[in-house]
Amino acid sequence: MPRTLNVTVAKVGGSLLKPGDVEKVLSKVIERHMVDDGKLILVVSAMKGVTDLLIKAYDEGKPHLIKDAIQPYLNEAYRFGLSKLGSLIEGVGERLETLINVREPWVRDNVVVHGELLSVMLIESILYNELGVDAGAVYDPGITTNEDWGKASVLGVSSHYVKHRLTWALSRRSIVVVPGFLGISLNGRLTSLGRGGSDYTASLIAAYINAPRLIFYTDVEGIMTGDPRIIGDAKVIPSLTHEEAYVASLTGAKKFHPGTFKPLIDSNVNVMVTNPWSSSGTSIISRCVNTPKLVSVSDVGSIGLINLKSGYAVTVVGCVMGLDEYRREVYLIMSSYDPVDVVNDTEGNAVSSIVKDQDEAVKLAKDLHKWVVSWIR
Q: What start-end ranges are recorded for coiled-coil regions in this protein (predicted)?
């Protein structure tokens, strides 16, 4: 699709959408994009903690948890005097309370994606009524899926629908707000793309419309060299390639949906992972900077890079991991931890060591991280 519009796709993560902070976050995001007189597609997640509540409400058959899930949206709506919106949200809650009694796989998906749908309702209203922005909502941007409930796969026809619907919406509004995390099956059922699916939605949209820019707004300044919860001196990675970011997501880095960066491989979309208040972040680009980039630790059952039943994968990601001189140094560090196996990514972007014990995995990750950051300036 030719670039006929100056369009930025921006995804706002649920970690930023906390009660009392929504307007502040939106104001900052809009401020950053008003300078270039372009169009903005805003992909939004559920407010912090809402998806977990919706999942628990359905899985445990507890209607009162639906009230807890919608309460943050009601609080924000009534805080801004948006009484009509508040009534709509209450109506959605009543419908969901009834719906969770239907024990069908499609119903679970329908329930859990409502956090994103409510975010679209709230954010469109705040943008239009409080911030005076020419914003409009598109609740179905055209992501079409199969009916593999809980982890639906995106169908190729999505490209056509997304281009058509969002190009039309952008011709009428400066800012278009769409939900992440969800699709619609060919039978018209709401489906879930899986946890972290809002990131995946944003990448799909950016790739389909050939957007010049895609920005992931999160609560940290970028993708880190290691998980800050276990590696105290982790730092922001200046840049990754699309391929490196894809492998990093497969190995659990920053909890991105594993498919997030796959649509961007071989694209010209310039990607940034940053915080709304930060002037820096991680750029995701086509050209490789020849250093290792990050270390991740994952339960082997939760990632797609390797196919083992138990243990922990400690992975070094970087486009240089296909080169003997780098692999030898990594192998030397890994060998001292008596790994069950060492696995090389076939594309040369990662090396993983499989260890049995979680404490050993953390120690290995810290040792490998020291080596990784020694290369990053």
A: none
